[in-house]
Design goal:
alpha+beta; Nucleotidyltransferase, domain 5; 8-stranded mixed beta sheet; 5-stranded antiparallel beta sheet; DNA-directed DNA polymerase; RNaseH_sf; DNA binding; DNA replication
């Protein structure tokens, strides 16, 4: 079989990203310069790593009629420029990667660093096209702000593997490690035997039993030990056939020989050794290790500047107190990064505040007091310490450190001046995007490589590992991940007795204002970017204190979480659900957890989940490897062999052959000489050139593929059935919401437990009722046919990453953005209207009740056991705390009979025991309960892939290994110094390892049950008149004190409300609510750009007027109106 003939390449459609204003070509022929302006260009080179990065910034001045060609031209220009720049610098590129970044994009669009091929540009465009499909749903555009295209080129052939070869000690500066001299067994030799001296000296230190003085004599050949180290070293070299006089000795060759000689001959049946060689690049994992898995004596060597030293044996401290620090950085922004772009300013730290506490000080209340004149063993000598360029007065602190480099002084203090016996945990609010980034750079410049947990540009945790007698382990974290929300909100949330968060004049923070009394303008406070409510508070401008609020909030959160999670004794009647029956004093979330979700999960697993009760769900599902093919491969095979009866000549095996299996391929070709091989990149290129092939791929249903569990994990429906309504006299518009939807679902839903049984029937069925489905608790892959008419569709499906609830798949694909057509009707047959659905038995049974049909049963994951009380104790615990902390409602407070009735209803309906004596308002407990009750179920579906990992290295060979590693994709390369780079990468999905609580099935059943609950609520509407609903069921009025006068919607997640208080006078001012997805409605947007409720309403009316005129022109054909919705097309009372 030969591939189809090449056709004209499909253009890259990007109108949705380069959209307004969208201009047609003028009579004068425009050039590229009329559309795109090149703002700047800079080049970074690391010759050591054969790596060049070219960054080019553009702004779009106008959009041509062919925007996809414009973007393709920009990418081609950048790639060609990057390759040319690389070659001019003597680097012949073999690999290339690309990153597109803009302030208008929530995250960068990156193309992995991979080998350069003829389809490199097409790969970039295809990747950008995939992102564009999702970005356009959020209304994202590249119009209006500059964007940057960064092209990274690498010469893989120039990256040589570094060998661990030792020789005589050279007087060179260390590359990147800081090691205390007392940690090393320093080898000072004049010959090239340092590897063997280090091995022998470390061995003697470990098992020789020598006193410190005697070992020193042995090492330095003194007194009675004179020459002993040299003699024993030469004996060992002779035993392992290490010829004397060589220029250097490779550790990867000779260390295994030495370890084998010791284990098998010299110390047979006496000791078991294993060697670890660490490098000087700051990593805390060995560069090389050798020896048995079970060993008794570790032999640790340190490799620096082509020289080996021994390392003394070290131990770990466990279970000790820890030091808690909150800190805040203030930066100057008076200097621009580039004089041509004054709005882009450098952040230069000139003031830092840090507050210190420990568990004992927190328990005793001493954390609020100064440490002047006394010292805490854990906290050190200072409670509050500042680092600033100038001294200040009026604020009491324990110590002021005056320095021209506050950040340098702060890093040295937190690493070296605190007690090193205790772990340090340092928090900053929103620090993952700001404070921690600045601190990371300074820690790196200090000679350390902290380990990072991050996603994109956001840091979750940064850890500097412990080094004996040098520094304690220091973990930097973002407190927003534990307590989401603005810092100022912690004051009312926990009822803190501290000053509120300040407004700070960031732009007035400059050296020229030191020592002066200034009167900052509103612009100095960046007031235009404040949210409206915050702007009102700013206009009243009061004083506040960041680190006091943060420390107070963390301590309050920690105390409440400890109190809630401690188990002094097993709860009566509930001990059988506990993971551990032993008592404990609670979970310290501030020390042990990075996010509130991880804290909730730790509590659930420790105190509520029985061991072995829930399964660890494989990320790739339960199908065997033989069936686990990609959709692209399955679609290609169907395109190659459309006749299902045609026997393929071992085609599947041939399609997966790789170059390294050439011998196996030769055997197959000898039997089947007409075999052809197609790589994924070749298939994708063929799709772009062949419309018929693309059509076949688009229509591929994936019937033969496995169940993708995560692929059927979807959210809920959004959309308006009417875009505008104004309340008439005696008419009411109400806004209702389900109270605590997901906690309620967790409380009442039956969840599958254990591993499922895989069934692959692949048979035709005719299911029309729930009773036809023999699988009560399962995930099923079926072909469903929806009814032709229904008020509220049931089953969701993703079409081009859009969540839809269609009644015809063909129509949904034909009109992906909806349509306004006066004469539309669906004429597709059942096969065209149906689709392959992977869903839970819960939703499938509900769909069968509403008229859906199942015609093919393809695959089933059937669970034999379910648990209807899986989350009930956990939810009850937090709901009870929330009720206790809220107190009795004002309407029943003080009425003993009404209070008793409330307590009885809680126990009768929900099994929640309310203790009257605990019904005392407590803001901190209530805030924690709200966080805990909503942040557990989603943790089960935490992705096992896609999280960025980093590696800091000074070894070009290591970069080469990462480029060759098929398990990962390199997302970015960044230069830290001319000698050291930062490699960012992600693991490919085929090679991921599940995290300890990976169970996407739990989250899948949660969202499935939630959609059904909302469906039942919508079905309880018994009559509609305009926007008035008559319903049965329990919902909460979101605006009980207001009357809604107008409602206007621009589509999904875009709406505005015009309200007035019920007790207000007729001529009183109105209140407005405006929510627009993807936009931050701050003061600048509302006032300078004019996006207010009235503007939003006027745009809608202008749009509908245009549509009405279109419809009127064809009204003679048919008197009907069709309305565009986000997930379906409605014609009269008929969904198509």
């Amino acid at each position: 079989m030969s591939p189809p003939p090449a056709k004209k390449a499909r253009r890259f459609f990007i109108e949705e990203l380069l959209r307004e204003p969208y201009n047609e070509l003028s009579p004068r022929q425009k050039t590229v310069k009329d559309y795109v302006k090149k703002l700047d260009n800079n080049v970074e080179e690391v010759a050591k790593f054969q790596w060049v990065k070219t960054k080019t910034r553009f702004s779009i001045e106008d959009v041509p009629a062919d925007p996809e060609g414009l973007l393709a031209g920009i990418f081609q220009h950048c790639v060609d420029g990057g390759v040319d720049e690389s070659r001019q610098r003597g680097v012949e590129p073999t690999h290339l990667g690309c990153t597109i970044s803009s302030q208008l994009l929530s995250s960068d669009i990156w193309i992995p660093v991979r080998q350069i091929t003829e389809d490199t540009i097409n790969s970039i465009l295809n990747r950008f096209n995939d992102v564009a499909q999702s970005k356009k749903q959020d209304g994202v555009t590249l119009w209006g702000e500059p964007f940057t295209v960064a092209v990274t080129t690498v010469n893989r052939n120039g990256l040589h593997v570094r060998r661990l070869k030792g020789g005589a000690l050279r007087k060179l500066a260390p590359v990147h490690h800081r090691v205390h001299d007392q940690c090393l067994i320093k080898i000072n030799n004049t010959n090239n035997y340092c590897l063997f001296y280090a091995l022998m000296a470390t061995l003697m230190h470990a098992i020789g039993g020598l006193a410190r003085q005697r070992f020193c004599e042995y090492l330095h050949s003194q007194k009675g030990m004179r020459g002993k180290l040299q003699r024993e070293t030469e004996e060992m070299m002779d035993a392992v056939n290490a010829l004397p006089g060589q220029q250097s000795y490779d550790a990867e060759i000779y260390v295994p020989r030495v370890i084998d000689w010791w284990n098998n001959i010299k110390f047979l049946k006496q000791h078991k050794f294993k060697a670890f060689v660490f490098g000087s690049s700051g990593h805390y994992k060995p560069l090389f290790k050798y020896g048995p898995e079970e060993y008794e004596v570790p032999i640790i060597l340190y490799f620096d500047n082509a020289h080996f030293h021994g390392v003394q044996k070290s131990g770990n401290l466990f279970g000790r107190p820890y030091c808690l620090i909150t800190f805040d950085l203030e930066t100057m922004q008076h200097e621009p990064v580039d004089p041509d772009f004054p709005e882009r300013r450098k952040h230069q730290v000139n003031f830092i505040t840090a507050r210190v506490a420990c568990p004992d000080c927190i328990s005793s209340g001493e954390w609020k007091k100064t440490l002047r004149g006394k010292e805490c063993q854990v906290c050190g000598p200072n409670r509050v310490i500042t680092f600033s360029q100038k001294p200040f007065r009026g604020t009491e602190v324990d110590k002021q450190v005056e320095t021209q480099h506050p950040l340098v002084a702060f890093v040295k203090w937190i690493l070296y001046e605190l007690p090193i016996k205790f772990e340090t945990v340092a928090y900053s609010h929103f620090g993952g995007r700001f404070d921690m980034v600045l601190v990371f750079r300074e820690i790196f410049m200090e000679g350390l490589n902290p380990s990072l947990i991050r996603k994109g540009n956001r840091l979750f945790e940064m850890t500097v590992n412990k080094r004996k007698k040098i520094n304690a382990q220091v973990c930097f974290r973002d407190s927003w991940n534990l307590i989401p929300g603005p810092l100022a909100s912690m004051v009312p949330m926990f009822g803190l007795d501290v000053h509120d968060k300040p407004f700070f004049p960031h732009l007035a923070n400059r050296p020229s204002n030191y020592g002066r009394r200034i009167f900052p303008s509103k612009a100095d406070y960046l007031a235009a970017g404040m949210m409206p409510e915050k702007r009102k508070e700013f206009d009243r401008c009061y004083c506040k204190n960041d680190v006091d609020i943060l420390m107070g909030g963390l301590i309050a959160f920690r105390g409440e979480f400890l109190e809630l999670t401690k188990r002094p004794a097993a709860p009566s009647g509930k001990a059988e659900r506990a993971a551990f029956k032993t008592t404990h004093d609670g979970i310290d979330a501030v020390r042990h957890c990075i996010t509130i979700a991880s804290a909730c999960m730790k509590h659930f697993r420790t105190n509520h989940l029985k061991p072995g009760h829930l399964a660890l769900v494989p990320e790739k599902g339960y199908d065997s490897c033989g069936d686990n093919q990609s959709d692209l491969a399955l679609a290609f095979m169907e395109w190659c062999y459309p006749d299902e009866e045609l026997i393929m000549p071992n085609g599947k095996t041939a399609g997966r052959i790789r170059e390294r299996n050439k011998m196996r391929m030769d055997i197959i070709k000898a039997q089947f000489p007409n075999i052809e091989i197609f790589w994924e990149c070749d298939i994708r290129a063929m799709i772009t050139k062949d419309k018929a092939m693309k059509k076949t791929f688009d229509e591929f249903t994936g019937e033969g593929g496995p169940i993708n569990i995560r692929g059927c994990f979807m959210g809920g429906r959004t959309g308006a059935t009417k875009l505008y309504h104004q309340a008439a006299p005696n008419e009411q518009i109400s806004y209702y919401d389900v109270t605590s939807l997901y906690p309620f679902i967790n409380f009442v839903t039956t969840y599958p437990v254990g591993h499922p049984k895989l069934d692959v029937p692949c048979e035709e069925v005719d299911w029309r009722r729930p009773e036809d489905n023999p699988y009560p608790l399962a995930i099923l892959k079926v072909f469903v046919i929806p009814p032709r008419k229904i008020d509220v569709p049931v089953l969701p499906v993703k079409v081009d990453d859009r969540l839809c609830f269609p009644l015809c798949m063909a129509c949904c694909k034909k009109y992906p953005n909806g349509a306004v057509m006066a004469s539309y009707s669906c004429r597709h047959d059942d096969k065209q209207r149906g689709w392959i659905s992977t869903c839970t038995s819960l939703e499938l049974n509900a769909a069968l009740e509403e008229g859906y049909r199942v015609t093919d049963l393809l695959r089933v994951l059937e669970y034999s056991k379910g648990d209807n009380k899986l989350f009930r104790p956990y939810i009850s615990e937090f709901i009870a705390q929330k009720m206790h902390a809220s107190g009795f409602d004002e309407e029943i407070r003080g009425n003993f009979a009404a209070e008793e009735q409330f307590i009885g209803e809680c126990m009768e309906k929900f099994g929640i025991k309310i203790d009257r004596t605990k019904m005392i308002p407590n803001k901190g407990k209530r805030a924690l309960a709200k966080l805990g009750v909503n942040n557990l179920w989603g943790r089960f579906s935490l992705r096992n892939f896609g999280l960025s990992k980093t590696l800091i290295t000074d070894d070009p060979g290591e970069l080469g290994n990462y480029l060759d590693n098929r398990k990962i994709e390199i997302t970015a390369l960044d230069m830290l110094t001319p000698e050291v780079i930062l490699i960012s990468y992600v693991e490919k999905k085929d090679w991921i390892q599940e995290h300890p609580c990976s169970n996407v099935v739990i989250s899948l059943f949660t969202t499935s049950a939630a959609r059904l609950h909302l469906l039942r609520t919508m079905q309880k509407v018994v009559r509609t008149t305009g926007c008035t609903l008559l319903y049965t069921g329990q919902l909460t009025d979101e605006f009980p004190t207001h009357e809604i006068l107008e409602f206007v919607s621009g589509g999904s997640k875009q709406y505005g409300l015009k309200l007035r208080k019920k007790d207000a006078a007729a001529d009183s001012d109105f209140d407005y609510i405006l929510k627009v997805r993807g936009m931050t409605l701050n003061h600048d947007v509302l006032n300078k750009q004019g996006l207010r409720y009235q503007t939003f309403k006027d745009r809608y009316l202008e749009y509908t007027l245009t549509i009405r005129r279109m419809i009127e022109t064809i009204a003679e054909l048919r008197h009907t109106t069709i309305q565009q919705l986000s997930t379906f097309i409605r014609k009269e009372n008929h969904l198509i």
